Amino acid sequence: MKRIRYTKFTGDLASSFGLEDLMQALSDFLLDSGYQDPYAQFNELNDQTIENLRDAIKQALESGDLFDEESQQKYNESSADQVEELVDQIVQKMQEQNFINAEEPQEGQGQQGEGNGDARFEVTDKSMDFLGYKALRELLGPLGRSNIGRHDTRHEAAGVETNGSSKLYEFGDTLSLDITATLSSVFAREGISTAVEGEENSPLNIEYSDIQVHQSDYQSSCATVVLLDCSHSMILYGEDRFTPAKRVAMALGHLIRTQFPGDTLNLVLFHDTAEEIPLSQLPRVKVGPHYTNTREGLRLAQRILARQTKDMKQIVMITDGKPSALTLPDGRIYKNAFGLDPLVIAETLEEVSRCKRSNIMINTFMLASDHSLVQFVQQVSAMCRGKAYFTTPQTLGNYLLMDFMSRRMKTVH
Fold first, then answer.
1. Which of the following CATH numbers is that of domain 141-151+220-408: 3.40.190.10, 3.40.50.300, 3.40.50.410, 2.60.120.430?
2. Domain boundaries, the chain
3. How far apart are CA 280 and CA 284, in angstroms?
4. 20-59 pLDDT tens trace
5. More confident residue, 101 or 46
6. What is the CA radius of gyration of the chain?
7. Which of 24, 314, 384, 402 is least surrounded by Cβ atoms within 10 Å, i.e. has the fewest?
8. β-pairing, 312-319 with 274-277?
9. In the 8-state DSSP scheme, what is residue 98?
10. Would you give the DSSP letter of residue 363?
């Protein structure tokens, strides 16, 4: 006779919370900058294993932030096998809803060429966009900014977005006719009774000088390069400075993509050297070598901005250290981490001068108050009319986003 075993029904815990909430809870894990493993190889993308993801999911479930009270109680009463099955279901749902891509490595492709069979996963662009949106909402929420508009400037022009005032029509203006102001000009010149008695539909005598158009705020376009220091110091001294910087860059990217579609945003990492990476790859990047080649970063940023035809061009530099490296003409890297090396500083400031001659503004956000760094940044700010901000990983986002938006309202002269 077939025996039937009855067990307590615990419900579908995998469906008792949204994957968006889980992604938010896993954000520190997904945006790991190498703080937990400071000796990892630089730019090791997609180095997370499914097993690491499973452990992170278990920690999120145990935190009590995902379940309601009843579901949390059911989870606490679950056996170890039930927990493993639940985590398997969650990982499967993450793949089905395109939050992660996972695949098994082929034989011989494990660490050091050995087939260790570890499954690895990659966070998708959908997840990156979601995390960028969440970062932007968290950063702007305390500022009371729930609806960000386009970039306003001090200039006024016709035909963009009316601001309530009018101007005389000039050749080349968009004919956004201000009917009230135009008719007022006609009546002021010819009087209220402009129709000839006894005739119907008598035309108004409108002259060229009567035509008024709506005065509008000129809205500029902007090309921005985020120059992000990823030297090793960004995760040393007991503080992770790189992960908050990554969050801010992602938030800025989401803001520009959704609110300022005419703008461009490029990302340059600088360390011993410098390279441009797609913004979508930023969350997967870890900190790298020890030195800070600021000049190489500025050179690459200038080449990127030279291809742009925007009204404004700017470099947003986030760093925690003074320049300490230089790329020599023969390609070798000259390094000196002690004090302000005269050669390194001179060559770097010459690059700043080139930015000024190209009308590129440099605003620097310092995550440290080292005396040498302060000296250097003060020189940069004085040379290119930029600003310098002393920030912390906690306040970086507020400073940077508010500066970005306020400067876009009043920079074009």
1. 3.40.50.410
2. 13-107+114-123, 141-151+220-408, 156-218
3. 9
4. 888 888 887 887 776 666 555 554 454 578 888 888 888 8
5. 101
6. 29
7. 402
8. unpaired
9. T
10. E
Q: For residues 404 and 378, give the distance between their C-alpha atoms in angstroms, rounded to a whole number.
A: 19
Edge-to-edge strand ranges of the sheet holding 162-168:
152-158, 212-219, 162-168
For residues 28 and 98, the answer to whether their CB atoms sit within 8 Å is: no
Instruction: Please report where in the chains the tokens 């925007």 appear, as a residue.
Output: 310
Structure confidence by residue, pLDDT tens digits, 345-358: 999 999 999 999 99
State the DSSP H helix or E strand holding residue 184, giving kind and residue range, or none if neither: helix 179-190
Residue-level pLDDT at 104? 60
Give residue for tokens 């009917």: 179
Q: Which residues pair with 389 in a beta bridge?
A: 365
**Separation of alpha carbons 225 and 140, rounded Å:** 21
Q: Which of 289, 179, 304 is nearest to 229 (CA)?
A: 289
Residue type present at position 71: S
Confidence of residue 185 (pLDDT cuts 50, 70, 90): confident
How many Cα atoms within 13 Å fall on the side-chain side of residue 57?
22
Yes or no: say if 320 and 368 are a contact pair by the CB < 8 Å rule.
Answer: yes
Closest CA to 304 of 195, 413, 226, 386: 226
* Residues whose CB is less than 8 angstroms from the CB of residue 225 and which lie 6 or more positions away in sequence, other chains included: 265, 266, 267, 268, 301, 304, 305, 314, 315, 316
> Of 154, 110, 117, 316, nearest to 223 (Cα)?
316
Q: Select from 228, 386, 410, 222 the least CA-distant residue to 313.
A: 222
Backbone angles phi, psi at 274, to 5 degrees: -155, 150
Sorted by sequence, the CB contacts under 8 Å of residue 329 that are 6+ apart come out as: none
Tokens linked to 7: 């067990």
Q: How far apart are the first and last CA of the chain?
A: 90
In terms of DSSP bridges, do strands 312-319 and 360-366 run parallel, antiparallel, or are they unpaired?
Answer: parallel
